Structure formats: structure tokens, C-alpha cells
């Protein structure tokens, strides 16, 4: 059979196996051979599904720079299975329905073989439950931290390169106690992220002798004054703000205007330069919070910092950029190790190339090239992430890592210390 495309003839020959089709394309006097069908020797496409048009919109473009840096390093080393890796993007809009629609588009239309994202836990669970677990596409969120992800029925296709709130909630409780608080009010967004972190914190704080009262809020509410008043009636000294910047700006201003709270504790979702602009530098001055950290300076963090600064001229002020880089590298290494873009094969290989027992490699162009060479030669490799060691457990959770204690100082966000943790 012959097909004419743009004046050139394509001769399609017989199928020589169930997975391989040989196509000979004649362009003038030059012939090209394309081999591949069903996931073998295809161009790897990695999707970045994040928030670009919502209360989390400050995060998407910045975190994408981590994905782009990873793809630069992969392609500079020769790509995957002989092809450059291609990046496709989607906007989850901090909305579960939109996120699932975008995930389907990225897989069914764009042909993505793996997804980095979404950022929020609610969207991540929705995409995993409705899309990726059914289509057998590995999904690695760089920032979804809800403890509810641990037991999600994802068929082995859901991972995260960030830390579960099972760790952050405990460290936050210790921080509250060290600040001298004995009675706290927790206002959390009614979502898997908000509820999970609030409940872990409450249990941990009460275990060490504190008292905690919790109340949820709906993200799209115009006011949170009833919830604030209900919490304050129990005599709490400080408000723990578990949510996102847009909502936090509203309820912090309401708390101040109505003289309900003037002391606050924050988490990763309310660690935001936009929040500083919304409520004022003086209001937040000296207030502390927790967020996923990268721990002490290591060869891995040094290599990544140098590479990022060379490309962009500065280091990112927003978190989860390193986690997105790590997720992208792991997807690529897994694909190279199995010589395929088949999602099922990539998912199985992820924990073998990142966090396995092989030779350690680090971020950066040289480290990624070394890792790709090792897996191409059939050797075991353990990519040591820029954010943390990627020792995934059976649930796709990071088993060891760090939680940062940070503070709003002079209109900026400063990390004070990193505390290690281990999850069972």
C-alpha cells in the first residue's frame, strides 16, 4: 500500500510482529526507518500537569522550570531510547474535574507516557482514581502531601517525590509546642490535603500535651468569620492556617479586623510571597511554619543548585521545584531501563532506578548522563534526588526526608532549620 503525504510517498510493508511495524519513508533521495508501535522505541513524552490559573497559580510556572531543567539534562545526555524527551503541559486549575479532563487530554491526545503532577492532593487523587490507574500511566506528584494518598487504590501507578503530611503534621506539632502554645485553633480547607494535615497535627499536638480545636472551611466561601469565631470560643491562642494563599489572605485579614487572632502558624500551602502582599509584611513578621525540606547540603543539592543557577541565573524561592526535577528524571530513567515507553513497565521500574540498591548518581548534567549510561548498560542505578532520597515504599511514599522550619522575615521567607524524619 502506498500513501502520499505532502508529495512524498510512504510505502507500508508487512507487520513483522505484533509490536513492530516497519515504515519506509522516501523524502527525495533520503530514506528513514521508523521502528516502533505499542510503546517500544517511541519518543518519551512527559506531561506536567499543574496549576496555572487558580489560587496556586504562582506555583505552576516556577515548578515547571524544574521539569524543564530535568529534560535539558536528559536530552543533553542523548535522550531516552534514542529520542529527545518531549514535554507537554496541562492546567489543573486547582480543580479536580478540570484536572481529570486535562489528564485525559494529555494521555489520549498528546500521548503522554507519564505525568508529573498535579500539585494539590485533591486533584492528584482525582486524576489517579479516574484516569492514570485505569490507563496504566505512572503519575508522580511533586507536592501532593495528603496522608490519604498513602492508601489510595491506584494499582501501583501513584507516586510522589515529596513528603507525606504524616511527617509534616508531627513536626508542626513540635513547632507549636516549642513556640509556647498550649491551646491552638486549626482552620483547614475541606479537602484531602487540609483535612489530612489538620488531623495529623491535632493528634500529634494532643499526644505531647496540647489542646487543639479544628474547623474546616470551603475554598470558595466569601467569608470565614463564623469558623474563626467558633474556634476562638474554645480559648485558642494561635490560628494554624492549613490551606492556600487566596483563602488564607481572607481569613487572616478577618481575624485581625475582628480582633480574633493576631498570632498564626503556617504550613507548606500557606508559605507564600503572595500572602505577604495580601496581608502585609508587618502582619506576618516573625510568624513561623513548616514545609517539605531538602535537608543538609549534599553533593546532590550542590549539583542541582549549580545547574539551576547556570540556566536561570538565580535559585527558586518557591518550593517543589527540585521535587518536580526528581520526578521527571525518575520517569526518564525508568523508561530507559526497560527500553520502552509502556506505562506499566515504567511504573514497575521506578523504585528500581530511584531508591534502589544500585550505584548512586546525582542531579546535574553529568550525573544524569552517568545514570542513563548505567541503565543503558543494564546496570543497577540509584538516583539520589535533588530534594530527597527517593526511597519509595510499597505505597509510593518517600520513606525518609526532611521538614523545614521557616519564618516570615522582612517581607521574605527564610528557612531556619531542617528536621529529619522516617516513615514506617
Q: What share of the residues lie within helices?
A: 25-40%
Query: What percentage of the residues does DSSP assign to strands (E)?
Result: 15-25%
Task: Tell me the CATH architecture of the largest domain.
Answer: 3-Layer(aba) Sandwich
Poorly predicted segments: 1-38
Question: What multimeric state do the chains show?
Answer: single chain
Number of discrete domains: 3
CATH superfamily of the largest domain: Response regulator
The helix count comes to 13
Order of strands across the main sheet: 11-10-12-13-14-17-18
End-to-end separation: 59 Å
Report the biggest beta sheet as strand number plus sense, adding barrel if it closes: 7 strands, mixed
Q: What is the rounded Rg?
A: 23 Å
Overall geometric form: globular
Secondary-structure content class = alpha/beta
The CATH C-level name of the largest domain is Alpha Beta
Residue-averaged pLDDT, rounded?
89
Tally of strands = 18
Fold-level CATH name of the largest domain: Rossmann fold
Describe this structure in words.
This protein has 424 residues and is an alpha/beta fold. It has three domains: 2-35, no CATH class; 45-162 and 298-342, Rossmann fold (3-Layer(aba) Sandwich); 166-286, 3-Layer(aba) Sandwich (Rossmann fold), CATH 3.40.50.2300. It has 13 helices and 18 strands. Strands 11-10-12-13-14-17-18 form a seven-stranded mixed beta sheet, with helices on both faces. Strand 12 (238-242), helix 7 (245-257) and strand 13 form a beta-alpha-beta unit. It is globular and about 65 Å long.
Amino acid at each position: 500500500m502506498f500513501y502520499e503525504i505532502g508529495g512524498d510517498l510512504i510505502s507500508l510493508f508487512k507487520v513483522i510482529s505484533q509490536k513492530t511495524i516497519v515504515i519506509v519513508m522516501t523524502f527525495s533521495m533520503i530514506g528513514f526507518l521508523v521502528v516502533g508501535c505499542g510503546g517500544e522505541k517511541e519518543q518519551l513524552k512527559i506531561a506536567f500537569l499543574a496549576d496555572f490559573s487558580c489560587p496556586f497559580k504562582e506555583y505552576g510556572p516556577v515548578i515547571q522550570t524544574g521539569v524543564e531543567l530535568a529534560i535539558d539534562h536528559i536530552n543533553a545526555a542523548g535522550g531516552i531510547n534514542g529520542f529527545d524527551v518531549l514535554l507537554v503541559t496541562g492546567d489543573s486549575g486547582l480543580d479536580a474535574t478540570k484536572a481529570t479532563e486535562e489528564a485525559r487530554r494529555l494521555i489520549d491526545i498528546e500521548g503522554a507516557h507519564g505525568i508529573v503532577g498535579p500539585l494539590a492532593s485533591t486533584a492528584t487523587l482525582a486524576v489517579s482514581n479516574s484516569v492514570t490507574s485505569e490507563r496504566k500511566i505512572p503519575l508522580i506528584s511533586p507536592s501532593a502531601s495528603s496522608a490519604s494518598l498513602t492508601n489510595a487504590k491506584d494499582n501501583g501507578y501513584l507516586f510522589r517525590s515529596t513528603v507525606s503530611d504524616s511527617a509534616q503534621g508531627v513536626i508542626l506539632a513540635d513547632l507549636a509546642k516549642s513556640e509556647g502554645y498550649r491551646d491552638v485553633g486549626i482552620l483547614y480547607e475541606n479537602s484531602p490535603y487540609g483535612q489530612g494535615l489538620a488531623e495529623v497535627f491535632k493528634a500529634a499536638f494532643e499526644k505531647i500535651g496540647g489542646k487543639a480545636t479544628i474547623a474546616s472551611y470551603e475554598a470558595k466561601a466569601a467569608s470565614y468569620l463564623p469558623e474563626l469565631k467558633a474556634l476562638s470560643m474554645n480559648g485558642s491562642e494561635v490560628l494554624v492556617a492549613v490551606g492556600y494563599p487566596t483563602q488564607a489572605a481572607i481569613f487572616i485579614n478577618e481575624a485581625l479586623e475582628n480582633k480574633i487572632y493576631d498570632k498564626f502558624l503556617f504550613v507548606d500551602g500557606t508559605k507564600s510571597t503572595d500572602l505577604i502582599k495580601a496581608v502585609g509584611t508587618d502582619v506576618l513578621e516573625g510568624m513561623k511554619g513548616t514545609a517539605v525540606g531538602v535537608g543538609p547540603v549534599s553533593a546532590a543539592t550542590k549539583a542541582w543548585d549549580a545547574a539551576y543557577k547556570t540556566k536561570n541565573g538565580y535559585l527558586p524561592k518557591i518550593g517543589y521545584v527540585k521535587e518536580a526535577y526528581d520526578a521527571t528524571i525518575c520517569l526518564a530513567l525508568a523508561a530507559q531501563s526497560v527500553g520502552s515507553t509502556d506505562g506499566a513497565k515504567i511504573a514497575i521500574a521506578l523504585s528500581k532506578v530511584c531508591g534502589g540498591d544500585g550505584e548512586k548518581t546525582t542531579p546535574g548534567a553529568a550525573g544524569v548522563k552517568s545514570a542513563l549510561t548505567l541503565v543503558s548498560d543494564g546496570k543497577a542505578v540509584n538516583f539520589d534526588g535533588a530534594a530527597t532520597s527517593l526511597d519509595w515504599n510499597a505505597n509510593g511514599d518517600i520513606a525518609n526526608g526532611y521538614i523545614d522550619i521557616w519564618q516570615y522575615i522582612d517581607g521574605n521567607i527564610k528557612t531556619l532549620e531542617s528536621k529529619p524524619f522516617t516513615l514506617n
